């Protein structure tokens, strides 16, 4: 039996702007092949747009034009590849350890003609101090108390963390108190994105690293 793929919500064109055609091309392929390739679960095709593509794309306005962004644990493309589609003015490093997922991401980058994204195969900790990116994104990789030590050494001084989180984000922040102090994480905020556009809004943990001063 083939699972039906969610019809494109009306908010999609508003969120993706003139990149909607490219996002549609990605959605079609992920919807058709994602489950078979182990990129999304069997329950996901009927909520592909709302739960995955748009949940990722609403982060786009928080990215700075010209910035270098690392997305950690991109998996099937969320949020890093989706953001690379909707923000061609931002450069992305998609960091993912699993070979098959890296092959999928590389195939999509070529197929969709994205010149602003590259895949780096490996775990985030293997790239510590290799980059000094301006912003870091991640979704569904691990809890904040582990995600902060995993990602902080990839950011430049003054760089920003933008992590998509669920309803328990406040509890995660409390549990991460020690890691936040150790890695000099400041300006911690939780942003709610997609209000008035998505039925289920997206929560983002947003914070800066200030090593000096
Ligand atoms: C649950 S999946 C989420 C994938 C995608 N971010 C999403 O939201 O659909 C977690 C991903 O993080 C990757 N991952 C796990 N540990 C990692 C690490 N230390 N560094 C980079 N990626 C990691 C896994 O290989 C996997 O693709």
TrEMBL record:
Protein name, entry field: Ribosomal RNA small subunit methyltransferase G
Binding, S-adenosyl-L-methionine: 73, 78, 124-125, 139
Molecular-function GO terms, alphabetical: methyltransferase activity
Record's subcellular location: Cytoplasm
Encoding gene (name): rsmG
Pfam families, per database record: GidB (PF02527)
Protein keywords: Cytoplasm, Methyltransferase, rRNA processing, S-adenosyl-L-methionine, Transferase
Role of this protein: Specifically methylates the N7 position of a guanine in 16S rRNA.
InterPro entries, alphabetized: rRNA_ssu_MeTfrase_G, SAM-dependent_MTases_sf
EC number: 2.1.1.-
Domain of life: Bacteria
One GO term of the biological process aspect: methylation
Organism: Leucobacter allii
